[in-house]
From TrEMBL:
Residues covered by the FAS1 domain: 36-243, 581-738
Keyword Thylakoid (UniProt): no
Signal peptide coordinates: 1-24
Lineage: Bacteria, Pseudomonadati, Bacteroidota, Sphingobacteriia, Sphingobacteriales
Matches recorded under InterPro entries: Adhesion/Biosynth-related, FAS1_dom_sf, FAS1_domain
Keywords associated with the record: Signal
Protein name, entry field: FAS1 domain-containing protein
Amino acid sequence: MRFYKLIFLLGLFTAFCLSCRKEAFDDYYSRPDDLESPIYTRLEEEGRFSHFRRLIEKAGYMQTLNQAGYWTLFAPNDDAVNRFLQEHNYATIEQVPDAIAEQIVRYALIYNAFQTNRISDYQSNLGWQEGLGFRRRTAYYDGFRKEKVKINGTEREIVVGASNRNNVTVNFGTPYYVDGDNNNKYVTYFHEKYRQFNSLTADDYNFFYPSTPTSNFHFMGGSVAKADIIAENGVIHEVDVVTLPRPSLDQYLRENDEYSFFRDSILNQFFVTYEYSPTASKTYEYRTGQVEEVYIKVYDPLLAFSPNNENFLKEEDNDGQQDGYSMFIPTNDVIEPWIRNVFLEHYRTLNRVPKGVMADFINTMLWQSAVWPSQFSTKTNLHEEPARFTKADITDKQMVSNGFFYGTSKIQESDLFNTVYKHVILDPEYSLMLMLLEREHKRLVINPGTKFTLFLFSNSLLNRLGYSYNERLNEWSWIDRNGNTMGHGQTQTRLARLLYSHIIETPNDELANINNTQGFIQTGDRALPGEFIKWNNGNIYAAGNERLQEPVQIVGTAKFGNNGRVYYVNNLLEFSNETAGEAMARVATENPNVSRFWEYVLRSPLYVANDRVITGVAGGSLYTLLMPNNDAVQQAIDDGVLPADPATGDIVGKFQIENFIKYHILTNVNVAADGNQDILSAITLMKDENDESQTVNVSNAVGNLRFIDRKGRTIPSVYNPDLYLSDRIVLHELNGYLNYNN
């Protein structure tokens, strides 16, 4: 009996202790008295959201917003909802369909809680980045819809989903669609902090919503009336507008037929496919209970982005907070005649235009960034071009869910289709030259700020001269005049050099009268000059053409771009493989007035007779060879600078000859009397006793080229409009000699 009594007392004590511990536990973990109510209840307490609370109920989100969570809600007040009812002819809230109520609520609901101190910051992988945020991901997404589309030429009604990536391979080979990513839509807002950090103006926002009064905190088409209403499970920002989910760029194009030519005849025709997705089909079955084959609408990876992707670049999970896409699309009445008159000048139909060229055209209208109106001239597309529009050129402007849409009254003035480059990119007969330009010099010739002349060589000309391109293997080859075959690497290197001789910077249109004048000019651009070419009444020569006695001639008439002109030619401007020794020997034969200098070179240890090269002069590099004429050589002998005998055995005499020759060879430069004042001095082959290279100063005016030696003497070259050319070498007769002694 005593044992049971002890057990009973122990039980009472245990119950008492447990009761005390439960009371302490409840006190510690119970809801604090000063904690704000959950969002739904908080709306009721504020007293201005009775209509919106009813929409929340119809949408089935009352419980969600009245329990734990972490949300931002842009809640329209009663005045805003009343305006919405009137605009959509709803007599009462009850007439609003549940599906519409759900769209309104979910599109107003943002993942994570953002007060105004963070709403304009970007939530990056490395932490908050101040002042970069103007968009947030909502709880709303479209899902799938039935559409009539063509698959393999047959029209079918299928269930279509949107790609949620920019058609890049992710997740070990899954392209364009990532399972579990719902492609949630974004809302756009415009906070004063974001505006200031990005040097924007109130007009940037009001351009989209001109009737909205200026505010420090805009939300879509309205303003935030009261910010930072704190709730237990998030933050409420009171807004004065009801916003239905905005379409994506893809959806906006689909809904507006004034852009149907661009949409149907170009974009959908050539850059959209529908890919069956087993994972999307399972998702559709889970959501709807229906078994269907679901296809994903996929945009070609040649495009800057996929207009139906709501996720921006997705290089970071939240990068859509700081940026979106922009499209500048011309209306049908603008784009159709341009396509017909410009784009299809050399093609019958669009389906004959190479896909890469078509993609280049589309990408002139696509920006991988949100371009505010004040940023038209600063933000660039994939072609590194600004948006060349004024506000007056914009006929339609929309903030859509994944960026900005601009309808335009003119075509983007792209450098691709306005400069001299357009005559290459839009003519199939020059597709091989286009390929070469795209590999190396595209950026150069599409620069509208620099004037160029291009000599265009056709595919048929290349083929006639033994060049061919294997598209399947992506390889070049060349069969020379002797029947020898050159492989891909060597051929591509050769063609790259040839190409540069067909591009000439002509700031003053120096080649305008090439058919009835004579002259010479350096090819390439001033920053990286190429080889000299010359012309004489329509016959054009590079060094190789002169040796082959095969001049280049212009066929047809010149055409123009906004940065110069193009000539069509019947031959290539060939380079020469002549050595420096061979070049000097040839010039001495053509011009006996420099034969004595050549005699000194020929007898010098610098000359290697077997290879006909001059020691120190590397083949294929830039040189200027100065050849004092016979009188100048005699003067050098008289002055004791040269020995009288070119074949002298005297050590001092040999030393004099070697330095004399080296001091007349300028390295890494081609100099001619073209007025190029950028060349002020040149390094010679000669070095002093300290092994330092010696220089010659240059004074260059058109038709008057002079050199200043170490003694300060000015020696003129003999002007010759029929310039002596060799393998990246220019040769001049000097009316005097350069004295290497100081």
